[in-house]
Design a protein that fits this description.
about 375 residues, alpha/beta, Rossmann fold, 2 domains, 6-stranded parallel sheet, 15 helices, about 15% strand, elongated
């Protein structure tokens, strides 16, 4: 019998749609997704969810706890998957008496930062975490936070996100059939945390130091869009849907993400899958798993314009090596293929359901909570 799983998610994305679709196509899992409806031109379009059983919530519906509970109950879930603890209407599901027989899994991508808020989190979140049967994290940095929340190591799984890897793989071969492109690519929101100001300044400094500078192509949208306008060599393509991105990826020679903070950016994983060498800062959580300096890219300090400039120059001067670095990137991105993501999640979902069943005693009492995630 198929396991019925309801994902309670926030914003939809191309990579999660690819994973949900692959999971729905599996023989073992019946998927239903509750997520936020796209509300702006710079959000991923609702059409990404075609073929995936789902309900997308508008601004009013996503705040209606009762309606969300009824929607979940109507699916009769074996497992409910929560996207963290920030959206309260979702969090209330964990205390619903009508869902007491469902197993719960929480996903988290937040890295450990050792600040006061995180040190208090085990106390603030304790009752919520006690309801979780498993926790799925993105990688090492969020695993460290999960452990500090008091979650038992045997209850933590890695691999929260995946990508449609097979659609990216051909790009390296297509790109390498001719002279490797001489251009840099940035994909992300045009906001301060993405260090757009440093990116622009560093790129201008790079242009001043070479005779034949490469273009910097930017794809995104945000409040700092004006900082890109009129700058020599910077091409602003704006926000593009995933279906419109293939030519952009193929014409790029290297990827850059100079963020000031980025929990686990999927853009790095997608760039690696596309066969690009990568420049990113050490606060990008996914660099731990996907980027190796001087192997398939460069990891540089945050908030450092000179380091970004030097990374531009290094790639420029090592153009002949970039195809090799890009091929290595694909190897590091391979574990995040949607097919492997399905295998990981099938295991996590089955274990969570078995754990839930074994934690429920006919007599109730102390045994009812023995298999929860907290130590």
């Amino acid at each position: 019998m198929k396991l019925k799983v309801v994902f309670c998610w926030s914003d939809i994305s191309g990579y999660m749609a690819a994973c949900w679709r692959a999971l729905q196509e599996s023989a073992e899992i019946d998927v239903f997704v509750i997520a936020f409806q796209a509300l702006t031109e710079t959000a991923f379009g609702d059409r990404l969810m075609q073929g995936i059983p789902s309900k997308l919530l508008d601004l009013q519906a996503r705040q209606d706890s009762n309606s969300i509970e009824q929607l979940v109950l109507s699916e009769h879930p074996d497992v409910v998957v929560m996207c963290g603890w920030l959206h309260q209407p979702y969090c209330k599901l964990a205390t619903s008496s009508k869902l007491q027989n469902a197993a719960f899994i929480m996903g988290m991508d937040t890295p450990w930062k050792d600040n006061l808020r995180q040190r208090l989190a085990p106390l603030v979140l304790r009752s919520f975490l006690q309801r979780m049967d498993r926790v799925v994290v993105t990688g090492e940095r969020s695993w460290q936070y999960a452990k500090r929340l008091g979650i038992a190591a045997e209850r933590i799984d890695r691999g929260l996100y995946g990508i449609d890897y097979n659609s990216w793989v051909p790009l390296w071969k297509k790109r390498s059939q001719a002279d490797w492109p001489r251009s840099f690519l940035f994909i992300g929101r045009y906001i301060p945390v993405k260090a757009i100001d440093l990116l622009v300044q560093a790129y201008q400094d790079y242009r001043d130091r070479v005779e034949d500078p490469w273009d910097l192509v930017c794809c995104g949208q945000g409040e700092l869009k004006s900082q890109l306008a009129g700058k020599p060599g910077i091409i602003d393509r704006g926000f593009l849907q995933p279906t419109d991105m293939e030519s952009v990826w193929q014409s790029a020679g290297a990827f850059i993400l100079p963020s000031r903070f980025d929990p686990w950016p999927l853009a790095i994983v997608e760039a690696a899958a596309a066969g690009l060498p990568i420049i990113c800062t050490d606060v990008c959580g996914s660099e731990v798993e996907v980027v190796r300096s001087w192997y398939n890219g460069l990891v540089i300090p945050e908030e450092n314009t000179a380091s970004i400039t030097q990374a531009f120059l290094t790639f420029h001067q090592h153009h002949a090596e970039l195809p090799i670095w890009g091929q290595r990137s694909q190897t590091l991105a391979a574990p995040y293929a949607s097919g492997i993501w399905v295998d990981r999640w099938q295991a996590s979902l089955r274990i969570a359901k078995v754990s839930k069943l074994s934690s429920t005693s006919l007599f109730g009492g102390a045994s009812a909570g023995k298999n929860r995630v907290l130590t």
